[in-house]
Amino acid sequence: MKKKIIYSGIQPTGNLHIGNYLGAVKNWVTLQNSGEYECYFCIVDYHSLAGNISAKDRHDQIIRTAAELIAAGIDPEKSVFYVQSHVPEHTELAWVFNTVTPIAELERMTQFKDKSEHQAKNINAGLFTYPILQAADILLYHGTHVPVGIDQVQHVELTRDVSRWFNKRYDKYFPETKALLTEIPKVMSLLEPMKKMSKSLGEGHVIELADEPEVVSKKLKKAVTATEGGDKAPGVENLLTLLEQFGSKEASSKFKEAEKDGSIRYGDLKSALANEISNYFADFRTKRNELLEDHDKIAEILMEGAKKASEVAGSTMNDVRKMVGIR
Length: 327
Ligand code: AMP
Ligand code: TRP
Fold this sequence. Notes:
14 helices; 5 strands; binds tryptophan
């Protein structure tokens, strides 16, 4: 049987949050450490150009994202870990894919609609063709399995379609891709628990892996626990799910029971959770801060990763150029 190829990417938003972690990054580390797969993890800086961040922020955030991913367990010896723009074949293949993708299929993308609303003054063409670049990321390395949060499933399905459209028009060359979800494919915002946790909602909505214990505690104190319509409070559900992930079994079942029989005290739940999260990421924080002392070392790791990625990407692009008749 052919080896599964794991591919995933993340925008250089700087500080990972527990949504990124539980929806994707934790799973990346597990897949990597199983030793069963060839793994590629990419910081997608070209994708981030479609957003609103400044050049200076982007540059800093690439380094910080790299440090955080390594601190969270991505091992550059075990995975190919690199920055998208260091491998120019990504944009080259994206162009080829632009020409096999019907516009109507891109118009269906919910992330495009959401982001257009969010940045109404900057609805650029890159925002629209964003999933095509994502398909190029994955397919350059013949990625078959894509570990992501639930919000990315539509893009992974589009990647599978791009592969089919290309194969139909030219040669049977690219594989079919599938999304790999975790048990918690969608962590909710602390302040608006009907929405997914996302940095774009604002600082108070997310818990970052690097947050110091007092910050975690302060944010959780403000977390919304009120019911919204239905009988179950989505904020409480979210906190209980988080406790299940980060806390001991006993603590988690104790609060679940208390929720059922109505004796739960949200203040206690929040402080228990704050402790568990802070402890869970204590080593992460130390490692991250150490890594950030040495930007040159991070840059070196990323250059090494790009070298490995380039070998595969170069060979795929050679094949593609021949298949489409430009060489
Ligand atoms: P992004 O920061 O948007 O590039 O997301 C990186 C990865 O984290 C993607 O696989 C997302 O699906 C995942 N992700 C982002 N936010 C959440 C969330 N609130 N819950 C679960 N997964 C998430
Ligand atoms: N679009 C993804 C996100 O917003 C990031 C991404 C870019 C990605 N290229 C990828 C994810 C390839 C998986 C595979 O989270």
